[in-house]
């Protein structure tokens, strides 16, 4: 769905994105002129696997689930992106189709920019090109680390790593950004196994759960060695 948009609103969308933060106000305005603002209701797809790619998406506010279908036909959560994050950059330099599904996890506003317009910007602003390459390298590293985790670590170890990373980023008390169903899919375990492990950690005084998603790490050292 297309939105009524203002130039200043488009500029605010551009400023959310780390790869554009090296631009001055005039340059930010040039990027904003190329952007189209759109909205997706919860459950609506920005794109589906198999569709031609040709757009870079910036999440203005809301959340988008990136998923793919496994060989067994079961949905696998790849990532949940939120405000200020970019998707569609993997297909930026090639003519290809999307390999994943992008579904709004909640009502979401986002900005869209044509791939060719984005390539022209990268040629004009090398600092943005370098920032984009750094972001793509980080995502590749994260993907490789996650793939290794799924094949070499137990369910408990994957959950522990996720909780400790969340604590590092948010502090000892944090709110899970995913539903427990999505978190289980992301970690490659069943929702039942996730709930059971969280209860075990809580019974062992390693964590404390409150509400639907809030968690406090009580004993980081002992939690680290859970298998």
UniProtKB/TrEMBL annotation:
**UniProt KW keywords:** DNA-binding, Transcription, Transcription regulation
Drop me one GO molecular function for this one. DNA-binding transcription factor activity
Keyword Manganese among record annotations? no
Domain annotation HTH crp-type: ranges = 153-221
| Domain Cyclic nucleotide-binding stretches | 19-139
Q: Does the keyword Amino-acid biosynthesis apply?
A: no
**Superkingdom of the source?**
Bacteria
Transmembrane segment boundaries: none
| One GO cellular component term noted in the UniProt record for this chain | cytosol
For this protein, the record's InterPro entries field holds: cNMP-bd_dom, cNMP-bd_dom_sf, Env_Response_Regulators, HTH_CRP, RmlC-like_jellyroll, WH-like_DNA-bd_sf, WH_DNA-bd_sf
> Cross-referenced PANTHER family, in alphabetical order?
CRP FAMILY TRANSCRIPTIONAL REGULATORY PROTEIN (PTHR24567), LISTERIOLYSIN REGULATORY PROTEIN (PTHR24567:SF28)
The protein here is known as HTH crp-type domain-containing protein
Protein species of origin: Secundilactobacillus malefermentans
